[in-house]
């Protein structure tokens, strides 16, 4: 058998060495292979080598690549392409097949690495670790030219077997080194008796290790200390509680905290959050609620229900007696106003009283029974009624109420004293010529015939003017007297202010002063703020009732004033025309101007101010006695001081015009007085009739008849008839 094999080998060798008579070129071989593939004789894939002179099958390529991987343990795909002489694309394709079929291989960053390679690397790392006690994985990754994550994933399953060490925070430590550092952490933690931030402790241990190991030592991460610490806590070698991972509270400190809080709360029935924060409890409310669920949290304190029971008994007694109570005087000194307000709202009797409107809480800590507040309100309301009602005076002056009562009525012997009668006769005469009788609307009709009427009297529309409709005297006063409702309300609000009420309250409740309340903001201001709207509302109702009662009287006052002004203004216009006859004699003219201002003008101003003052007081709800009607021959007379006081007591827009009118009486010309009179008439809504030809003739006829009657006894009858003609 052996001889036959040897013979076959010799024949095969001879056939190989024999030269063929027919030689094929490379091109012919390529075409022949392609033809065989087309005919299906070659039914498998063929890969060209990079030289182009050889064919290789994928199976053969995989075998050659696997042989190189087993040989080297770690080889790059580029090196495999060079070794096999095949294009890199085919090498990458076959590498994927090889790695997917073999779980001991991995393809990373263009390299195929076997587990045997990692075993060898792990053994080398272990040898180095035993020499240095600690190794940084970043250095190993840099040497192997791979990522740190890959090194960690490779070393973790080999820890305890091929690698005798502990992996923590990106570093490898030997068991001896771990035990050494663990002992340091245990000792440092057991020496802590107060809450501590562990980060500071780890910094101290790092400095200690640097001093111990010297320059050769590697910096230890804080996570390594934290891991050892957590293990010690879990094993029970260190007692305490860890919060947020870094805040360590030893059990001895927690026990001391608990004893301190229990002792204070049992003795005082309350404890402040500030005290717990000083004890190192960062969330005192949650801590107390967890330990004492029956307690009640306030704004700055945590109290036991017994405090509420004590305060509730005192508050119930004060409400039943119809009195008041300061809860801060019952509670301990540590309670603030906000705490007092909250604990008051938790008292059952207070809740019941508030619901049934038997009590109110003011100033956060004060509780008043409604009966007490009502009595105080009644006293203040009576006090306001007995005052001179400064709230109703537009300028705040209440000293002018005596002007009407004290105004003297005197008789003036001058001829102008009868001007009222003569003026009335003239108006009646002029009216009879027009309608045959005198009516109450004569002044309105006469005013409508005056071209200046539309400038002095406000009207609603031209349509009303054409129809002869004019606003009544009461409507004019409402729009022109300057006493708007908003202004009066604002004046009342300013008059009854909190500053005005506080002394009154102090006088009615001397207990407030006896308790030594230094800051009025605590209760006086809240109490005054509570009573002020009630007093203003009461005042408003009284004024409303008084205004309703005085409405007809106000209308009557304005109607009478309009009638008086009509007569006086017609007379003074007639006298003003007469003064023009003496312009050539300056000295006589000045005397006559002054005489007219001192007599007729002064009487007219006195009448105007008195009636405007009465109307103002009636409008403001003040009680005004009916003045005694003076005789027609006895016009009212005021002193200069009374005139100024009455002018100032009016509303501000009207007061300015009234003062100007009073000052015009001291002027040298009647024209100044007439200008001021028109201004105040326009402001107050009064209508000033212009003297026309018809009224002038009537007035002159009346005066001529009057003087003839007076002079008849002294003069002859014939001479009087001559004068009449």
Automatic annotation (TrEMBL):
<feature type="domain" description="E3 UFM1-protein ligase 1-like N-terminal">
    <location>
        <begin position="4"/>
        <end position="288"/>
    </location>
</feature>
<dbReference type="Pfam" id="PF09743">
    <property type="entry name" value="E3_UFM1_ligase"/>
</dbReference>
<keyword id="KW-0808">Transferase</keyword>
<keyword id="KW-0175">Coiled coil</keyword>
<dbReference type="GO" id="GO:0016874">
    <property type="term" value="F:ligase activity"/>
</dbReference>
<dbReference type="InterPro" id="IPR018611">
    <property type="entry name" value="Ufl1"/>
</dbReference>
<comment type="similarity">
    <text>Belongs to the UFL1 family.</text>
</comment>
<dbReference type="Pfam" id="PF25870">
    <property type="entry name" value="WHD_UFL1_5th"/>
</dbReference>
<feature type="coiled-coil region">
    <location>
        <begin position="544"/>
        <end position="578"/>
    </location>
</feature>
<feature type="compositionally biased region" description="Basic and acidic residues">
    <location>
        <begin position="621"/>
        <end position="634"/>
    </location>
</feature>
<protein>
    <submittedName>
        <fullName>E3 UFM1-protein ligase 1 homolog isoform X6</fullName>
    </submittedName>
</protein>
<dbReference type="InterPro" id="IPR056579">
    <property type="entry name" value="Ufl1_N"/>
</dbReference>
<feature type="domain" description="E3 UFM1-protein ligase 1-like">
    <location>
        <begin position="558"/>
        <end position="691"/>
    </location>
</feature>
<feature type="compositionally biased region" description="Basic residues">
    <location>
        <begin position="460"/>
        <end position="469"/>
    </location>
</feature>
<feature type="region of interest" description="Disordered">
    <location>
        <begin position="621"/>
        <end position="642"/>
    </location>
</feature>
<keyword id="KW-0833">Ubl conjugation pathway</keyword>
<keyword id="KW-0436">Ligase</keyword>
<dbReference type="Pfam" id="PF23659">
    <property type="entry name" value="UFL1"/>
</dbReference>
<dbReference type="InterPro" id="IPR056580">
    <property type="entry name" value="Ufl1_dom"/>
</dbReference>
<feature type="region of interest" description="Disordered">
    <location>
        <begin position="411"/>
        <end position="489"/>
    </location>
</feature>
């Amino acid at each position: 058998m052996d001889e036959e094999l040897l013979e076959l080998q010799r024949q095969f060798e001879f056939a190989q060495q024999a030269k063929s008579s027919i030689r094929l070129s490379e091109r012919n071989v390529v075409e022949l292979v392609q033809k065989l593939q087309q005919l299906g004789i070659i039914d498998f894939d063929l890969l060209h080598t990079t030289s182009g002179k050889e064919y290789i099958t994928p199976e053969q390529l995989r075998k050659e690549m696997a042989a190189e991987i087993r040989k080297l343990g770690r080889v790059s795909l580029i090196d495999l392409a060079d070794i096999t002489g095949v294009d890199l694309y085919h090498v990458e394709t076959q590498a994927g097949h090889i790695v997917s079929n073999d779980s001991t291989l991995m393809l990373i960053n263009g390299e195929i690495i076997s587990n045997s390679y990692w075993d060898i690397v792990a053994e080398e790392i272990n040898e180095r670790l035993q020499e240095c006690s600690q190794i940084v994985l970043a250095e190993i990754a840099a040497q192997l030219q791979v990522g740190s994550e890959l090194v960690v994933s490779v070393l973790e399953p080999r820890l305890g077997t091929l690698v005798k060490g502990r992996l923590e925070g990106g570093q490898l430590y030997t068991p001896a080194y771990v035990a050494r550092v663990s002992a340091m952490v245990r000792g440092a933690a057991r020496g802590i008796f107060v809450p501590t931030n562990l980060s500071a402790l780890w910094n101290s241990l790092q400095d200690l290790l640097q001093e111990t190991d010297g320059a050769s030592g590697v910096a230890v991460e804080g996570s390594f200390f934290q891991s050892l610490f957590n293990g010690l806590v879990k094993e029970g070698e260190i007692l305490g509680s860890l919060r947020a991972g870094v805040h360590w509270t030893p059990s001895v400190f927690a026990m001391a905290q608990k004893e301190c809080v229990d002792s204070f709360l049992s003795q005082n029935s309350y404890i402040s959050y500030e005290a717990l924060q000083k004890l190192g409890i960062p969330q005192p409310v949650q801590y107390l609620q967890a330990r004492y669920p029956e307690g009640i949290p306030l704004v700055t304190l945590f109290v036991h229900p017994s405090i509420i029971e004590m305060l509730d008994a005192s508050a119930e007694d004060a409400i039943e007696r119809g009195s008041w109570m300061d809860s801060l005087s019952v509670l301990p000194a540590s309670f603030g106003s906000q705490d007092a307000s909250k604990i008051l709202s938790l008292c059952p009797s207070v809740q019941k009283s508030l619901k049934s409107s038997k009590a109110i809480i003011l100033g956060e800590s004060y509780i008043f029974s409604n009966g007490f507040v009502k009595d105080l309100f009644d006293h203040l309301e009576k006090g306001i009624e007995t005052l001179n009602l400064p709230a109703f005076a537009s300028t705040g002056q209440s000293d002018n109420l005596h002007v009407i009562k004290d105004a003297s009525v005197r008789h003036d012997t001058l001829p102008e004293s009868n001007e009222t009668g003569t003026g009335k006769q003239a108006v009646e005469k002029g009216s009879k010529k027009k309608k045959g009788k005198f009516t109450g609307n004569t002044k309105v009709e006469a005013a409508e015939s005056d071209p200046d009427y539309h400038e002095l009297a406000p009207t609603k529309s031209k349509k009303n003017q054409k129809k002869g409709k004019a606003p009544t005297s009461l409507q004019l006063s409402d729009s022109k007297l300057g006493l708007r409702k908003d202004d009066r309300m604002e004046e009342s609000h300013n008059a009854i202010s909190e500053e005005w009420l506080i002394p009154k309250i102090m006088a009615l409740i001397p207990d407030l002063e006896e308790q030594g309340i230094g800051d009025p903001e605590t209760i006086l201001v809240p109490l005054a703020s509570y009573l002020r709207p009630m007093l203003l509302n009461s005042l408003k109702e009284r004024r409303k009732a008084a205004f309703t009662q005085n409405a007809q009287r106000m209308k009557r006052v304005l109607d009478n004033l309009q009638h008086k002004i009509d007569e006086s203004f017609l007379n003074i216009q007639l006298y003003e025309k007469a003064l023009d006859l003496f312009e050539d004699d300056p000295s006589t003219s000045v005397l006559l101007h002054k005489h007219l201002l001192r007599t007729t003008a002064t009487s007219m101003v006195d009448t105007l101010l008195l009636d405007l003052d009465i109307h103002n007081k009636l409008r403001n709800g003040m009680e005004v006695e009916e003045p005694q009607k003076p005789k027609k021959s006895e016009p009212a007379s005021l002193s200069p001081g009374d005139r100024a006081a009455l002018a100032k007591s009016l509303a501000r827009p009207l007061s300015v015009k009234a003062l100007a009118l009073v000052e015009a009486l001291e002027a040298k010309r009647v024209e100044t007085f007439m200008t001021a009179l028109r201004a105040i008439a326009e402001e107050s809504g009064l209508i000033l009739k212009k003297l026309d030809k018809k009224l002038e003739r009537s007035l002159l006829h009346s005066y001529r008849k009057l003087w003839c009657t007076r002079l008849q006894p002294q003069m002859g009858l014939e001479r009087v008839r001559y004068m009449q003609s």
